[in-house]
UniProtKB/TrEMBL annotation:
Keywords: Cell membrane, Cytoplasm, GTP-binding, Hydrolase, Membrane, Nucleotide-binding, Receptor. Belongs to the GTP-binding SRP family. FtsY subfamily. Involved in targeting and insertion of nascent membrane proteins into the cytoplasmic membrane. Acts as a receptor for the complex formed by the signal recognition particle (SRP) and the ribosome-nascent chain (RNC). It comes from Schleiferilactobacillus shenzhenensis LY-73. Residues 22-53 have a biased composition (Low complexity). Residues 1-69 are annotated as: Disordered. This is Signal recognition particle receptor FtsY. One of its GO terms (biological process) is SRP-dependent cotranslational protein targeting to membrane. Residues 431-444 form the SRP54-type proteins GTP-binding domain.
Length: 463
């Protein structure tokens, strides 16, 4: 079973045959439209259009939406592990809808928390049905003290991906509205639509090629059938490419301090991500140190020091324009002496030129490994999620010279280019490990691939 079917099984179902589920499904669409309305009126229109227009052709019947408080109370009852699929799916949908509605309507904190917690519990139950989803559930359990952040992230994913979802759904709908028959011109245009949707060039070609055969094979003529095959292909390809992918952050195994090195072009969000992560580990009671390895840009050290002050974590600094590797050496040395748990190393996004930057990063890495042979446990490439294809080219550039272990995708809260996640996996084969969902210290979430892809294609998966 491909990822598409597994997600549909976990999150969706057959609305027309199951009255209860139909109302849960309708409430999901309603909640989504409401949440988007809060962000932008025109976006809400197109989101409901995207939610309505494709399923209408598939023959699903509209049903009155469940009142929001009813949906919340449904969500408040976590599904037992052995409940049938349909019930789980209904419960997941309503819980997810409630979480979005509660968050977007700025309802009381506790309501949002309750809905998110219930959604997470139901998700775990539903996840037992599929291998990849149960991995996600296991990862959630393993995070232990990070669990509350994980729960709250469910509502944030929905909200954070609203723009990307609308943008992609719109594009697909506009495209489908233009074609009359499934011919060569159709596939050429589809290819362009997918590239514009930031799924990546190679991915767009691959999907279109596979689609030619699949559409013929299934004799798909109706627009809704073709749309389904398109999304199914995208989700399944994403699922296949992610087999064995490890989205977790790695820590030292021998009791020595863990070191995470952050790299990426200027403005991507390195310093901000370090501040957020420092906050996370500090809250967990870990001994955290920050290393101000960007001595090049004026104000960069001060920016990290300010983050350190805000989240109550010490920062190791050096004079302006001094050797960044010396600052990092000091930080690692201090971490060893103090028996610190984790060192987060900031680096410059730009030096005199690209070669200097790459050489500098290599030198910093050597200094770390000389002091701590297992470290750095992570070299995290920070990419600005609003830049789409540009982020992908940057990533290709960095990975040529630096041994990147994972991606941090920032600014998803304001991005319409969430589709870049498909391209990162399919073309770079690097795991996204963290996502930035705002500028504040709590606006960072562990990346959950299945929740993400569900958030991106929600209306097209849940039918
Ligand atoms: N909305 C939003 N803004 C973010 C996010 N992450 C970072 N930013 C903002 O992006 C801007 C640049 O972030 P920095 O952390 O300074 O980027 P940097 O990679 O350290 O940049 P240099 O130090 O110039 O190399 C800041 O205004 C941040 O507040 C995010 O997840 N969401
Ligand atoms: Mg910085």
């Amino acid at each position: 079973m491909g990822l598409f079917d597994r997600l549909r099984k976990a999150f969706g179902g057959q609305p027309a045959e199951q009255p209860e589920e139909t109302s849960a499904s309708a409430s999901a669409s309603t909640a989504l439209a409401e949440s988007t309305a809060a962000a932008s009126a025109s976006a809400a229109d197109s989101t409901s259009a995207a939610a309505a227009s494709i399923p209408v052709e598939s023959g699903s019947t509209a049903a009155p939406a469940a009142p929001m408080d009813e949906a919340v109370s449904m969500a408040a009852e976590p599904a037992p592990a052995s409940v049938p699929d349909q019930a789980v799916a209904a419960s997941v949908q309503s819980a997810s809808a409630s979480a979005v509605a509660a968050a977007s309507a700025a309802a009381s904190e506790s309501a949002a928390q309750a809905a998110a917690t219930a959604a997470s519990a139901s998700l775990s139950a539903a996840a037992a049905e599929s291998a990849s989803l149960s991995e996600a559930a296991a990862a959630t359990e393993n995070t232990g003290s990070e669990a509350p952040a994980e729960d709250a992230s469910l509502a944030r994913y929905d909200k954070g991906l609203a723009k990307s979802r609308t943008s992609f759904g719109d594009r697909l709908n506009h495209f489908l509205a233009r074609f009359r028959s499934v011919d060569d011109a159709f596939f050429d245009e589809l290819e362009e639509t997918l590239i514009e949707g930031d799924v990546g060039f190679e991915t767009a070609l691959k999907i279109t090629d596979e689609l030619r055969d699949e559409v013929k094979l299934r004799n798909a003529k109706k627009k809704s059938d073709v749309a389904e095959v398109i999304v199914e292909k995208m989700v399944d390809l994403y699922g296949e490419e992610g087999a064995g992918e490890d989205n977790s952050l790695h820590f030292s195994t021998d009791g020595t301090p863990t070191v995470f090195l952050f790299v990426g072009v200027n403005g991507a969000g390195k310093t901000t991500t370090i501040g957020k992560l420092a906050h996370r580990y500090q809250e967990q009671g870990k001994h955290v140190l920050l290393a101000a390895g960007d001595t090049f840009r004026a104000g960069a050290t001060e920016q990290l020091v300010e983050w350190g002050r805000r989240v109550n974590v010490p920062v190791v600094t050096g004079p302006a324009e001094s050797d960044p590797a010396a600052v990092v050496y000091d930080a690692v040395h201090r971490a060893k002496e103090e028996n610190a748990d984790i060192v987060l190393v900031d680096t410059a996004g730009r030096l005199q030129n690209k070669v200097n930057l790459m050489n500098e990063l290599a030198k910093i890495k050597r200094v770390i490994t000389r002091e701590l042979p297992e470290a750095p446990q992570e070299v995290l490439l920070v990419l600005d999620g609003t830049t789409g294809q540009n982020a992908l080219s940057q990533a290709k550039e960095f990975t040529k010279t630096t041994n990147v272990t994972g991606i941090v995708l920032t600014k998803l809260d304001g991005s319409a280019k969430g589709g870049i996640v498909l391209a990162i996996r399919n073309e770079l084969h690097l795991p996204v490990k963290l996502v930035g969902l705002g500028e504040k210290m709590d606006d960072l979430a562990d990346f959950d691939p299945n929740k993400f892809v569900y958030g991106l294609f929600k209306e097209l998966i849940v039918r």
